[in-house]
Amino acid sequence: MDKTVAGLPEAVAGIEDGMVVMIGGFGGAGAPIELIHALIDRFRATGSPKNLTVINNNAGNGRIGIAAMIDEGMVAKMVCSFPRSSDPRAFTEKYLAGAIELELVPQGTLAERIRAGGAGIPAFYTPTTYGTDLAKGKPVAEFEGRNYVQERWLKADVALIKAELADPHGNLTYRKAARNFSPLMAMAARTTIVQAAKIVPAGEIEPEHVVTPGIFVDRVVEVRDAAQEEALIRAGVEYA
Amino acid sequence: MDKTVAGLPEAVAGIEDGMVVMIGGFGGAGAPIELIHALIDRFRATGSPKNLTVINNNAGNGRIGIAAMIDEGMVAKMVCSFPRSSDPRAFTEKYLAGAIELELVPQGTLAERIRAGGAGIPAFYTPTTYGTDLAKGKPVAEFEGRNYVQERWLKADVALIKAELADPHGNLTYRKAARNFSPLMAMAARTTIVQAAKIVPAGEIEPEHVVTPGIFVDRVVEVRDAAQEEALIRAGVEYA
Amino acid sequence: MTTKLTNAQIAWRAAQDIEDGAYVNLGIGFPEMVARYQPPGRQAIFHTENGILNFGKAPPEGKEDWDLINAGKKAVTLNPGASFFHHADSFAMVRGGHLDVAILGAYEVAETGDLANWSTGPKGVPAVGGAMDLVHGAKRVAVITDHVTKDGRPKLVRACSLPLTGVGCVTRVYTSLAVIDIVAQRFVVREKLAAISLDELQGLTGAGLVVEGTIADLVVPEL
Amino acid sequence: MTTKLTNAQIAWRAAQDIEDGAYVNLGIGFPEMVARYQPPGRQAIFHTENGILNFGKAPPEGKEDWDLINAGKKAVTLNPGASFFHHADSFAMVRGGHLDVAILGAYEVAETGDLANWSTGPKGVPAVGGAMDLVHGAKRVAVITDHVTKDGRPKLVRACSLPLTGVGCVTRVYTSLAVIDIVAQRFVVREKLAAISLDELQGLTGAGLVVEGTIADLVVPEL
């Protein structure tokens, strides 16, 4: 059992045009910048993958990461809760020009829909959005005198995840609030690709401390000294 | 913020007739024997609580724990997936005599219903039980060409939980497979009562290693050298 | 001198109602200010949607850890007894009724308890974040807001004109002029500034005000 | 000499189809035996519903840790790379399609893929455990079973007479006489013991057998 791959190009291999890609991170915490940039490199070299649907809480910041994917024209649709950031120009421009689609999902519903995708729950009811514009067209039902909206699972072809420790089985831990959506996305994707700050031998992560069990992970690549998105933004870095 | 209570009687105070009580544990792993026996002590002294609905994976073993509650006549209904054990006499006798009600729930559905109760999800769809006797009377729906059964959340008035470490905020860790249903039940009960092998100062449990955040916990009592149910069963211990 | 509270004073007043040991979520922006005014001797536990319980103050500038942020993406620190968890667990806390108080900002609040605080209309890029989740589940959903808009129109109204965040979810409103409960779909005035009459308050409010018993003076310190 | 495989030999045959690195759940009882016969050079990762991935063999008697048990409540050990998780995550692995193989016992299997393995009827105390969850979600749901009941009646049938565990869920059956796939609601014979004719096998089966191409000999070692 060895899910480690040698480098970033191998890690992002097989991501094809039109795929649905979940990308971990909330703001800069947990953004798998190196995996994203490896995917951009492939797009620049081969013209693929494009027409991607990207699922993330936000819709990119500045000129790196998801924003750079959008700038490159790789993204056809964003599914997110908050397509704003300190510098949302990349998404905003394309959106206002009608060049990118947006599915706006409340943050908690987004998390629960992804979990449902990973857990084999095709639909569930939530009070969130009942009576609002975002519930339009969705089935509603009353339970115990209160109204709820039916929401559907979200699944992906691929998840790109940033972890702290990984072992060759794909067991993962995360760093602080960089955990956010990543354990859920790892469950909900057909192929889960992880960049870890460190790969340790099997058995070194205490079984009680594993946050994402290896069954949810397909590939692991070690990226030491990975960039933190927020730090790059503040430093004005551009991936161009 | 100090959720610790001095002793077992204080820990189980306020559990009243007719309440729904979730009890952690799968087999002997995670069974909060001392909390259960404290509740039995109160019943013997006061005649209360009785007419309880107990939610647990099993329905008691031997003459201790939940089996002893059943023998005492405290339990009106069991909600469980597997009312068998190495010695299921207590439940079996009452059930065959029509003196106790049974709601049989598949194990994964039981877990998911409890999680739903804790997460504010009143209903969800699962493939489990579709086309079987256990789906009778439940709504069904088709999603993406496959059939699913609608299941409802499970909530409780009280959860009795066995943890390994606790801090005064109620943050918890568990020991090995004794984790099982406990983190879910802690979420789904109005009052979550925990016996912990050790109470440590706030900050001693690494924030990354907390399994149950304190928001889900109401009372914590330290029970050093707690009994392990399976060990008691094998030793032939009876709580009588 | 204008006869109204500053934002800091509104936040201070809201903070006085947070009990010791309460689990609290403060919305991004103005509501975050409430944390500054916890009464002495009381300790609230703050929740942030992105997966932390019991976070503390901002770190000194230059000492930020950008993996340790709140829902507003501001750097925070941890208090002893903190914990991390993923987004589904975090919103289980929200939606599952585990928070004691959520304090949010508002564009409009209706006497029905409806809240509009996420969209000012169809222009631009819509963004909702956790607002629609937060209005459900907390035992008490309170709003802090100026009593009127910048151009003087009422923010407390009969029915919201802007897109709703949630239906019938708000139970108390702390404004720059008054503390108002929503009871049985009516605005019930609990406190108001002594310098303003009930008639004046009614004139600045877009729905009928109800009085039950006496109205206390809304008294806050200089801040 | 009876011309049929022992349980150990059925388990051995099932084990040969488990690929290196597969995530596998073995039902309680007879299916647990499959773990003993992993082919050399292949490492399967075993999942148990009560919250462990990558558990290992039973500990020596007297060395049991009763907090470290499998779904059958037997003491187990951990292999390097193991993890613990709660029941909702555990059944997310099951229901969410993350297991490669689930191997279960059966009272009856129908040519439609329906499985009956949890109840022999309304008498006694019903108990279901994780059986109904396990038949959904694993990429491959296989059954190991004697070909006929103790009193000689077919266990592979047109339609189950006992209460169902799941509808259309089984894709392969390893019996004491044959290896049979369920394809388009028909039993397709892939392997059978050389000592038994297809007619004899049909005579012991409660639904029509289909042949696609050749039937291989079912060959297993002495065990």
UniProtKB/TrEMBL annotation, chains A, B:
Asked whether the UniProt record includes Transferase among its keywords, one would answer yes
Q: Name one GO molecular function term.
A: CoA-transferase activity
Q: Which Pfam families match?
A: CoA_trans
* Residue intervals passing through the bilayer: none
The similarity annotation says: Belongs to the 3-oxoacid CoA-transferase subunit A family.
Q: Which InterPro entries match?
A: 3-oxoacid_CoA-transf_A, CoA_trans_fam_I, CoA_transf_BS, NagB/RpiA_transferase-like
What is this protein identified as?
Answer: 3-oxoadipate CoA-transferase
Superkingdom field: Bacteria
Organism listed in the record? Aquamicrobium defluvii
Keyword field: Transferase
Q: Which residues form a coiled coil?
A: none
TrEMBL record, chains C, D:
Protein name, UniProt field: 3-oxoacid CoA-transferase
Report the superkingdom from the record.
Bacteria
- Belongs to which family? Belongs to the 3-oxoacid CoA-transferase subunit B family.
Coiled-coil ranges from the UniProt annotation: none
What organism is recorded for this protein?
Aquamicrobium defluvii
Recorded hits in Pfam families, A to Z, give:
CoA_trans
Q: Which PANTHER family match?
A: KETOACID-COENZYME A TRANSFERASE, SUCCINYL-COA:3-KETOACID COENZYME A TRANSFERASE SUBUNIT B-RELATED
Q: Name one GO molecular function term.
A: CoA-transferase activity
The organism's taxonomy opens as: Bacteria, Pseudomonadati, Pseudomonadota, Alphaproteobacteria, Hyphomicrobiales
